[in-house]
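During the second half of the funding period, the structural biology subgroup turned its attention to how the target accommodates small molecules. The most pressing case was fructose -6-phosphate, which had performed well in the primary screen but for which no bound structure existed. We therefore specified the complex as follows and requested a full 3D prediction, including the ligand pose.
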Amino acid sequence: MRVCGIVGYVGHRPALDVVLAGLRRLEYRGYDSAGVAVLSGDGLAVERKAGRLANLEARLDEVGRDGFAGTAGMGHTRWATHGAPVDRNSHPHRDTTGRVAVVHNGIIENFAALRAELEAAGVELSSDTDSETVAHLVARAYADGDTRGDLPASVRLVCRRLDGAFTLVVTHADVPDLIVAARRSSPLVVGIGDGETFVASDVAAFIEHTREAVELGQDQLVLITRDGYEVLDFHGEPAPAKPFTVDWDLSAAEKGGHEYFMLKEIDEQPTALADTLRGHFAGGRIVLDEQRLSDQDLRDVDKVFVVACGSAYHSGLVAKYAIEHWTRLPVEVELASEFRYRDPVLDRDTLVVAVSQSGETADTLEAVRHAREQKARVLAVCNTNGAQIPRESDAVLYTHAGPEIGVASTKAFLAQIAANYLVGLALAQARGTKYPDEVAREFHELSAMPDAVRRVLGTTAQVQALGRELSDAKAVLFLGRHVGYPVALEGALKLKELAYMHAEGFAAGELKHGPIALIEPGLPVVVVMPSPKGRAVLHSKLVSNISEIQARGARTIVIAEEGDDTVRPYADELIEVPAVPTLLQPLVSTVPLQVLAAEIARSRGYDVDKPRNLAKSVTVE
Ligand code: F6R
């Protein structure tokens, strides 16, 4: 699981209170189950409960808190990705003796092999998670061999065996004053108090107790006691770690120092993309998640529909270009709210891809039901484990963007594009329309996108300054061609919903068929340029479109590839994005449009996270 909240504590206060308060601060990260473990007496007291943290607290009231009297403990709020959000999959997980407890954030990619190894050794696992394997492996290492009786060495040994991303916090009832935590590609910070030490996935968990913190590096392990901490690498050598002082207030801390969740989520896009791609290329092949569709099913497909709403629909429009190009299958992209009312032609050889961040959107759910009634096969692309849409679909591919709190979709949108592309590559692979080395190359190019998006985030200050200038505009138009067209639609949608400003996205070629009448002096027009190398013909056509609107006095804001000098004379404002393959351009060119909309909204004094009249999950038709 990814983007869970983790807290660990050793000190002088009742650990249960400290841990629960920390979890409350982290609940925004994941909230489909929660659990705590406290080292008390010579054992471990553990309670776990599906649902929100309040359910766990009610459960603790029911069983009584007396058994949780110790001053060392840990807790977890979960955002499930492996295993449904039920009590037995909640963290902490224990080994069979109940003396080791583990909480985990991340995805252990080789967990199937580790699980098989444990089962072969007669260990009975009690959950469907990847995380539980760690508890058993640590317990076995602690019980035997060179690492016997040495918790840090046991954890190090296990960490070296894990593939994937993880933050782990581990305790053993034999050493009640010590907590060991480890990280690889998932966040972990240490908080240093007076006679107490904390570990957490986020400083928000301990900021009310201390502002002195230490950030751990990649593949590092920290041992915390009430007297301090020690950082080691996975081989037991002392490792450098970065101390810092937290200067945010509490509410900023929950938002990672950002003013709004949406800005934090925009910043998280490289991670959301990397996490969505992680583990989907193994043994030279694209692998999907719960793919209850065989390769034969994918070969039988003769038409693809993407059904979705809002931004998710735009992710489908982007994917159409790639899926048709890679598979030579016709792809129709349809608003879910229209789909079932027009008697679409569906049969068992139709693949319907239902894209939904929440997995609860009523229109999309009804479209799924309609498609299944017509015997079409439905693959859900979803960000929420166990939601209704994946539950009612034949197969599911999860986007691992983590919880999106801002109502306007940002990181989930980018993750949806990446996931839709994985569907396209899986189809191309099964149908043989791409050679294995071509599929590998496409995946490799996708894998470079988190870095490209990170570079785009470097232009945020320029775009924000522009946003402030545009805050009084009456309207903004967005133009694009090819994959830039859905990007224009997405840019306009973001601006409408956040800044309550009239905004329209157009295919630039349509301009002369009507919309050009809207152009008047000073009207801001955002143009999403294709690559001058990758799409030379389209590029020159768009340059003509820009000169047409410039001639009529529009203010041109151009998003173009770095080094695209031909477009410079036509741009009143030029926002450069890294050069990437054409089909991947939406992943970089959308980002400045998100930032622009958020900044215009902020300058107008609106609540960026909660725009008026909107809800995060639209569960009515
Ligand atoms: C726009 C936005 C909405 C959603 C749409 C679908 O920023 O967030 O347009 O994309 O309501 O929601 P899901 O993906 O949850 O089905």
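Two results from this model are relevant to the next phase. Residues 416 and 555 are 32 Å apart (CA to CA). The chain has three domains: 5-253, 261-447, 458-603.
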